[in-house]
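ARCHIVE CARD
Drawer: 12
Card no.: 0347
Subject: one protein chain, sequence and derived structure
Cross-reference: see card 0346
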Amino acid sequence: MPQKITLGHKQMVAEAYKEIETIPIQEAFALVGRDDTVLVDIRDIREIRREGRIPGAFPCNRGMLE
């Protein structure tokens, strides 16, 4: 059965941003290690290997979240 795509990627991103909170990196690092916060690193494994892990972050690439 063919799929009927009703939303473009820009619309999908705009709707996703309504559901999430983004913060500056300085604030994110201040939250690392707190019991009430989970920092999720959505970079691809190749980026993590090239640039290094974020201490205390949960690695889960964007494709897995989608």
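Annotation on reverse: The helical segments are 9-19, 25-31, 45-51, 62-65. The chain is about 45% helix and 5% strand.
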